[in-house]
């Protein structure tokens, strides 16, 4: 499943990481635009983002060099409460050396 890790660049000092296929974490936030902040790198895999039962985004966390990235994952016409479910796909890009995923934060904008 998911576990908590620490890295000096984390938004609030910690992040969630997982590598088990199907491991899921949920979070609810209120806003109109939502962005995922994650640690990317050469050993990162892919993460599915759901709102309800609908897949809204697949995030490939692979990058040649390690770093923090922010990707918009969902937008709505009006500000509302949205429940997100992040699911480990246990998949990777051809260049990646691993399948673990990372979630550092969810940014909600009104």
Folded structure, characterized:
The protein is mainly beta and 110 residues long. The chain is built from no helices and eight strands. It has a five-stranded antiparallel β-sheet, with no helix packed on it. Strands 1-2-7 form a three-stranded antiparallel β-sheet, with no helix packed on it. A hairpin with a 2-residue loop joins β4 and β5 (54-60). The chain is globular and about 40 Å long. The mean pLDDT is 94.
pLDDT < 50 runs, ≥5 residues = none
Structural class category: mainly beta
Q: How many beta strands in the DSSP annotation? A: 8
Helix content: under 10%
Strand order of the largest sheet: 5-4-6-3-8
Shape: globular
Proportion of beta-strand residues? over 45%
Overall residue-averaged pLDDT value: 94
Radius of gyration: 13 Å
Main beta-sheet annotation: 5 strands, antiparallel
Query: Separation of termini?
Result: 31 Å
Oligomer: single chain
Number of helical segments with 4 or more residues: 0
Order of helices and strands: EEEEEEEE
Give a short summary of the structure:
With 110 residues, the protein is mainly beta. 0% of the residues lie in helices and 61% in strands. The chain has strands at 3-5, 15-18, 24-40, 46-51, 54-60, 67-88, 101-103, 105-109.
Structural features:
3-stranded antiparallel beta sheet, single chain
């Amino acid at each position: 499943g998911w576990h908590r890790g620490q890295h000096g660049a984390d938004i609030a000092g910690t992040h969630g990481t997982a590598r088990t296929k199907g491991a899921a974490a949920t979070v609810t936030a209120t806003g109109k635009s939502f962005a995922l902040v994650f640690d990317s790198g050469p050993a990162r895999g892919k993460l599915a983002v759901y709102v309800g039962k609908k897949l809204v985004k697949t995030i490939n966390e692979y990058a040649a060099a390690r770093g923090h990235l922010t990707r918009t994952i969902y937008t709505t016409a009006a500000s509302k409460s949205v429940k997100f479910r992040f699911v480990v796909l246990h998949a990777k890009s051809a260049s990646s050396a691993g399948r673990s995923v990372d979630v550092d934060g969810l940014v909600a904008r009104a």
